[in-house]
Each structure stands twice: as structure tokens, then as C-alpha cells.
Amino acid sequence: MNSRFARGVSRRHVIKGAGAALGVVAMPYLSRAADRPLVTHGVQSGDVSTNGGVVWARADRPSQMLVEVSTTESFKDARALPPIAALPEGQDIFYRIKFRDLSHPDISGEAVTGRFRTAPAGRRNVSFVWGGDVAGQGWGINADDGGMVSFSTMRKHQPDFLIHSGDTIYADGIFPAEVKLADGKIWKNLMIPEKTKVAETLDEFRAAHKYNFLDENVRAFNAEVPIFVQWDDHEVTNNWSASKQLPAAYTVRDINLLAARASRAFHDMYPLRESLNEPGRVYRTINYGPLLDVFMLDERSYRGPNGPNLQEIYGPDAYFLGPDQMAWLKRALSNSKATWKVIASDMPLSLIVYDDYANTQGSEAFAQGNGPPRGRELEIADLLRFIRDNGVTNTVWLTADVHYAAAHYYNPDKAQFQEFAPFWEFVAGPLHAGTGWQNELDNTFGPEVRFAKAAPAGKILSPSDGFQFFGHVRIDGASGQMSVTLRDRNDTALWSTTLDPKPT
Q1: Contact 113/147 with Cβ under 8 angstroms?
Q2: How do residues 412-443 score in pLDDT, each as one tens digit?
Q3: Contact at 8 Å (CB) between 267 and 215?
Q4: Distance of alpha carbon 314 from alpha carbon 300, whole angstroms
């Protein structure tokens, strides 16, 4: 799989039991230096399964991507791709990537090394982290604050992977060079020209992603921890849907054109397994052994226009996942043999998110207010009923978006709509962005707030103020129990619970 553009080259390479795909990108580079081609933004891996994963790197010029893999850190048993024999399950895989100059095949750059662990075939322990919201509200990389600290903190737990719950960038977010904080200190953003305006061109969208990779914490994390990534609104612009009216800062006035460019940049910059049936698709199932399946949702590409969200009959204006994705999710949940089914939703189910910052109009998320299911909630009601009626057990929802940490228990006895089995939803984030305050709760599906930690109402604080959160999940291989802990960027365990699996 390859991606083509004029300023540098980003590449993904699939490592799997059946072999590997390797391509050459032949777009001309504007200034062909005589030195060796460089890996410019570190390496990444993602969408790991029992027989492999996807690795990613970016070169500073048109190059051929060369990948070696090994089951030892010394690379004593290294093999170049392609071809490659089937990779063992639950195995640490070390890989190193370098680029070879197209015009001078004898010239190669230095290799950059990464690692990932393939998913287990047996019942070993599983550990992963999740969160979202990076470089938002004008808070970029500040070396004086240690950079994007949450990534360093998460890395210490040596998780098997990260579920990135969206808002991987803030394409609409402009960075000031400096911000004076309440304590009198100065927040100093690392600056690049593209972050002084909203992203509109393909290069500007790509630059917003590349900005995050300038952080040492992010690059070190990416080299060791696979990413399961999804997108939300800020990969394009705030609260985007087909009805989005772009503010005056945009010279491009077509939201569909912006979304298309943003989607291309998103897929260029992350190691997703691509769908052969629908190129550019984000929703997918990641089978991570007998204890866990992860269902990555896309709550942007198929939604109807943002609006009051009060429809009583399901139709295009009430779409959020949309019929095709709903059918896929029901089918995938029914077919899952894993103990735990984690539904990675970029937006929470019952927190009211308005379509404007003044919190006065429209619905941006599922929730539209207390009462029976209406609008986008019709999809959730249908899905929850399906899960109950088809005996799908041990579903857990993980989400981000609202920039605070929370644990919600959904109790049908306290719900307006009661045709579902109890379940949990956990909220984490931001990983590195402005802080949020606690949202209003919608009682349609009976959520109970078991824990919440947010910034004081009305205050958007910097990452240095400490309201940065991620979630950590551990599944015990012997008992199958799932432990969920909400942590802050200093690694303080704020709240935790352990869930016992029901028989599947």
C-alpha cells in the first residue's frame, strides 16, 4: 500500500503470515539532496492481529521502503521483506525501516527501529491504554513542560496497544507562539508555519499530523506501542457534518472538499489496515486473541447533518453510524467469539454535546436530552436491543471527546428506554489538549455517573494544569477479568473497577 504526494513520502507496510506488500513512490521531490534519505517522523505500527500488523514510516524524498523484522531485539534472526514466513502468535516483533534512494539504489539511509507484539492465540494477559484529543485549543509542544507528557506516562505501562479515540489533531486549531498562564508562567509552543492558520490544503492537513510527531514522547511511544486509530471532528474542523457552515477563517467553503482532504491526510499518516471493499474506511474489527475483539467505529463519515436531533422515525437525518455500519457492527458482534467486546466510540453515548461553544443549539453527539430515544439515539436503542436479544455478552464502550475522565454505568431500571442489558462506558482524555468540564447527562439509557474528574466549569486550562487523562485496561489471562483504571498524566490512579466476564 502506498501513498503519493510531492513533499516527502509516507509509507505503510503490512506484515502478515501470507507475505507482504511493498511499493515504490515515484513523485518528484523539489530539492534532491545528495545525502542519504531520512526517516523523518519516527516509525509506527498498528492494527496488530495474531499474524502481524502494519508498520509505517515517512521519508524526506521519493524512496524505496526497506523493512527487516526479527523476533529478537539484536536482529540476529532478521529477515528482509518480502517474503516472510508466518509470524508466531503473541510474539514480540522487532522491525527496522530505512529508505533507499530511487535514483541511486546503492544509497540508503540509517534504519529506525520499532517493535510490537502480535495478538495472542491463547489466554495470556492483555494490557492496553486509550484516550484522545491531542494538540487542541492552542496547546502544542512546550519543551519547558516536557512536551506531550501523557505519551511518556502511558509508555511506562508497556501496553500492548493504544486505542486512539479520535481528535488525533486539531486541524482547525491555530497555535499562538506564547500564552501567559494564570500563575504568570509563559507557555511556549513549538511553532511551524502551517499551524498559524486553519488547515485547508492537503499539505496543511498532513502538517498538522506531522506536528505531533515532532514530540520526542510521541515518537518514543509510537516506536513501542501499536496504535488502533479512529477519527472524530477535529481531523477536519470543529463539529463537522454535511450541514457545517464554515467560519470566516476558511477560504475553502466546501465542507465536503475539506473532509476529503482531511481523510486522505489521516489515512496517509497512520498505520490502518485498508479495506479492499471501501478504500478510506475507518470502521473495522481488530481481533486481539480469545479474550478481546475491538470494534472501531466511524461516527463522522456517515452521519446526517447536525441539528436538533429530535426525529421520531429513523432516516437519513438521524444517521450517526448509518445503516451499513450498523449492519456491520451487529454482524461483527454476533460473530465474535472473544470474551470481551470493546466498542471504541469516538463520542460518548449520553453526554450532551452541543453544536456550538455557547451550548445553546443543536446536537453534536448521540444525546439530545432526557426522554425516549429520538434522532441519533434511535440507532443506539436498536443496537442495545440487538445486543440483548442476541445474547452478545461482555460489551464495554470506550470513548473520549469531552476532555475529562468519567465512568458511566448504564442501568435499564433507571432508563427511559429499558430494552437492554446493563453495561459500562468509560471516558478518557485529553491526552494533550485544553481541559474540559463536566457535561450534562441524558437519562434516555439510564447512565449513572460512578466517577468523573473535570476542570472547573468555564475554564479551559493548559496541559500543565494536570487535567490530562488516559484509561488503562488489563484483562487477566487466567480469570478473564477486566480491570479499568482512569489515570492522569502524572500516572495517578484516580478510579478503578474490575469487571467479571459473563459466560459467552
Answers
A1: no
A2: 999 999 999 999 999 999 999 999 999 999 99
A3: no
A4: 17
